[in-house]
Amino acid sequence: MIPPLRPMLSRRLMISALSTFAVLSLFGCGRTEPEATPPGGATTPGKKAEAVSGAFKVALVTPGSVSDGGWNASALAALNQIKGELGAETQNVEAKDASTQEENLRSYASKGYNIVFAHGGEFEAVALKIEKDFPKTLFVIPSGRTIGTNTTPVVLNLKEGAYLAGMLAAGMSKTGKIASVGATKSAVVEEVFKAYEEGAKAYKPTIEVIPTAYTNDWEDVGKAQQQTMALLSNGADVILQDLDQGAKGVFQAVDETSKPDKPVFAIGTNSDQNALSKNILASATIDITKAYVPIAKQVKEGTFKPNDTPYGMKSGVIGFVFNPAASAPLSADLKAKIDEATKKIIDGTLFPANSPAKAKP
Amino acid sequence: MDILISILMVATPLLLAALGEAIVQKSGIVNVGLEGMMLTGAFAATLGALSTPGHPGNAVLGLLYALLAGGAMAALFAFFVVKLEANQVVVGVVVNLLALGLTGTIYRAKFGQGGGFISTQILPHLLGKLNGLTLFAFFATPLIWFWVNRTRGGLELRSCGEQPLSAEASGISVLKTRTGAILFGGMMAGLAGAYLSIGSTGTFSENMSSGRGFIALAIVTSGRWSAVGCLIAALVFGGAEALQFQGQALGIHLPYQVFNALPYVVTLLVLAFGGKSAQAPASLGRPYHKS
Question: A 259-298 residues with CB below 8 A of B?
Answer without folding.
Answer: 273, 276
